[in-house]
């Protein structure tokens, strides 16, 4: 435990600051969580959801994995989504990619890394699907950025076509799905032009989002 002493001390300082700023904060937080947002992001330690959004604990429900994947066979991610949509009744699901993503870079370089190769396979599939767009990138960094964007859009599409979101829309539940990307170099979020609230918007939004990426690639 001595090796974690610095973390415990930091925790005590944080808790003391929070209590000083809002004496009833922890008591209220312990009673319930009522977030309006589900953040599906990357496990990268440089991309903390609450801090980026300038929100307090309890404001954002968070799921993170390597390269912000939403895979229909991933029971972990799907369980988080179902709880967020059906129990917490979040109003927004945000898939947030980030530039400089190690998972996307590993998929792009096609190196053999072991077990994680299975996880990255879907990104390699995305790269193959949009090879015409990526082929227009004359610089490696630009290609890398475009694949980070395309990955976030594709994963947001997977959210929108999931059973829990489809059920929510069929029942008239207020729910929107968004694709965003975060810049490590400036700390800013960018809209990737994919934001849907019903099935009727899905194809058009997907087309517009991909076209926006294609324009950046050229």
Can you describe what's shown?
With 218 residues, the protein is α/β, with parallel strands linked by helices. It contains ten helices and five strands; from the N terminus they run ααβαβαβαααααββα. It has helices spanning 5-21, 25-31, 49-53, 75-87, 102-109, 116-129, 131-134, 140-160, 163-170, 202-217; strands at residues 37-42, 60-65, 92-98, 176-182, 189-196. A five-stranded mixed sheet has the order 2-1-3-4-5. The protein is globular.
Write a short abstract of this structure.
It contains 10 helices and 5 strands; from the N terminus they run ααβαβαβαααααββα.
Widest β-sheet, arrangement of strands: 2-1-3-4-5
Name the overall outline: globular
DSSP, total strands:
5
Query: How many DSSP H or I helices?
Result: 10
Note the main sheet.
5 strands, mixed
Low-confidence runs of at least 5 consecutive residues:
none
Calculate the terminal CA-CA distance, rounded to whole Å.
53 Å
Structural class, from secondary structure content?
alpha/beta
